[in-house]
Amino acid sequence: MTADSPFEAFRQAEALLADRQPLAALRALAPVLEVAPNARSVHLLAGRAYLLSAQLRRAEHSFNRVLEIDPSDHYARFALGRALERQGRLTEAHAQFRMAATMHPIPDYMEALGELRARIALTEEGPASGTNG
User: Fold this and answer.
1) For 47, which of 63, 72, 84, 87 could close a Cys bridge (C-beta 3.0–4.6 Å)?
2) Where are the TPR repeats (predicted)?
3) Angular region, 126: left φ>0, alpha ψ -120 to 50, beta rest
């Protein structure tokens, strides 16, 4: 299936990502990124595909690009937090989750923030404090 216009290619990439085919979605999205390098929605979709395909640095770059275009995008902050968390960069992830939850306090953001805070607390305690004796 080929797309004749950037709009069709974008829609095709969305459908492929919905079908959990992130690499195919990225292939469909590549020409759209070339013709619309400043389109927030294009970078957001690319970031989601990179995140789903575990290309975490590329996901980070895409979400940062979204935030350059629109610093108030709470979902991009949350998704950037996920990418950072998966890279083990917990303090940076915490900052992004906190901002996302402050901007838009939905349960998903609040839960992710709480879970990450607990994970950071466990990490700070260290393995010695978790022993029984």
Assistant:
1) 63
2) 40-73
3) left
